[in-house]
Amino acid sequence: MNHFVFVVCGSREHTDTLNFSLKFLRHFSRARIHVLTDTSRNEASIEHDIIVDVKTPEHLDNHQASIFLKTSLHRYFDMKAGDLYCYLDSDVIAVSPTVDEIFNLKPEPVLFARDHCPFEEFSPMAMTCNCQEEQETHNREFFAEINKYFPRNVFSESHNIKDKQELEAAFSRMKQNSLKSWMQALTYGFKRYLLPVKSFRFAGFRFNKKDRCWLNSKHEVIHFDFAYHSKRVKNLTGIWLDPETNRWYNAQNKDISPVVPACEHLSEHIRNKYGHDIPGNWRHWNGGVFLFNQNSAEFLDYWHKITMEEFTDQATKTRDQGTLAVSAWHFGLQNMKTLPVRFNFITEYQNPDTMWDAEKGYTMNGFKTTFEPAFLHVYHHWGDESWDIWQSVMKIARERKIL
User: Mean pLDDT, to the nearest integer, of 364-370?
Assistant: First the structure.
């Protein structure tokens, strides 16, 4: 028999997220769906009929209690031969009738998906070092300096990603070899380079010739002539961009580029404490979706044991992915086959390659290819109606009458 399992503990926010995701999973799946929880901790009720209530240790906070249940969930089910279980984080949303196809796969002894970043980028989020704060401070200082010379704080345009994508798509269509695209290109060239006007419209957006910026209907900058402005910045400040490496340098040729927070502290911690040498470029597992059965007990018991031990280690934050990485290497599973992305599509709000379009569907490479995910892992910007990914969720809800 096939089973899905959610875990939730504590605040109304998490329970509301779970209740939302339950509606989608019940719509698309025929499998049995369980919710594992400690009801004594919950601020709101769970809208489901199969609830496994487990009393968690009182000294744990709600976040720790959720991880306690997640890493020991196999102990609360009478798993029989042939039974297959799939754990889901509460922010994992079923969006396709193909969700039950995950049970065609086999855990040996478990089966997780890869995370969206390498281990060294996860490290600052798992350790109590100051690397994330220091590198984010560097990024803020860089942008604060360079934004003085670019029009309208153009590097804070993440909320305009969809408008930018629509404009770029219009330019792509204009480059197609057709009579219509040729006529459009001629009209565009005439307006931009020959017609004596301060601005003109193209594809629903307005181009301001003076500052060479594209604006949407709300007069927000969504795109700009980067070559023009970067040249201007170099003339004014000495700061310049190497187009081959996409790195920024100051007048002394020192690399001052914004960086993605990353460090080696988690790898060092694991090496010193557990004896496993995990390289920084290893793509670790994501704990949001995984398969398990009665043969997974040894792995899950070890993951649970060391996760509980890490709760008392001041060097690490309350997470379960670092100990999941240790468990993978402890059992020699670090190179095993992982879940296909479609069963744990980790949606990143600030990743321009992760998108949805009503006609094209979903992509994780800027529409070089498209695919149909079974689950969306919406780990941030939950409910953000300006985000195309969330718009896709609500479109499914309306069409399927789920909510």
Answer: 91
